[in-house]
Amino acid sequence: MTKTKIVREKIWSKLADVALPDSRFHLNFSEVIPDFIGSDRATDHIESQPFYQDGQYAFITPDNCLVELRKRMLQAGKSMVVSTYGIYRGFYLLEPDMVPAGQELFAAWLDGLEHFGRRISLEEIAEKGRFDFMVTGASAVSLDGVRFGKGHGFFDLEWGMFTELGIVDSQTPVTAIVHDVQVVEDKLFPSPTDILVDYIATPSGMRRVENRAVRPRGIHWDLLEPEQIENTPPLQELRRMHGL
Q1: Distance between CA 74 and CA 205 in Å, rounded?
Q2: pTM over 0.90
Q3: Would you state the pLDDT for residue 152?
Q4: N or C: which terminus of the chain has fewer CB atoms within 10 Å of its end residue's CB?
Q5: Beta-carbon neighbour count of residue 169 at 10 Å?
């Protein structure tokens, strides 16, 4: 068993005490990054950051712990691109004028996202320009910014696609929202595709990652299974854009 897997499963045992069950996956943390007790306080800390206050357009992952953030962004007049579960149906654009007043919470849920938002292609995302910031959930994150997801590498894929479009880079602020029990003090070593975060927002506060390592660029096509490419429409679109 790899150290990453050991850390992930150790965290999952602690997370069960503070996680809020998902309506579909319950507490199956290999399939869902759950919401947790205190995610509203973690969101408070993000709201206080200059990158959030100044930013108007962001990429937000579909994790349950980011529902409150997505709701508040809509209420604050901010737009976002959100990936669908597993990226199976690509990405959706969600803008405040798409959501009737009072429906922001519903729109922040994944079913509501697809009801109010509209599907957006990679080409359209590229045309809209750079993301002001990115926020993701995590299964675990180390103090030096190494983030582990459910184990499927979706955020790494999304980052790779966006770097190839030139709309994110090492200067793009990336924040992970997690519970305090998900923060790992051990020294962890990222893989070549791991995306390191700049900030860690928890119910108890906001941590800035000092001396963050360089993030990777692009898609590592040689590491992808043909089935994964076949099941991920944006990857197919990116190949067409590159003439592959």
Answers
A1: 23
A2: yes
A3: 62
A4: N
A5: 11
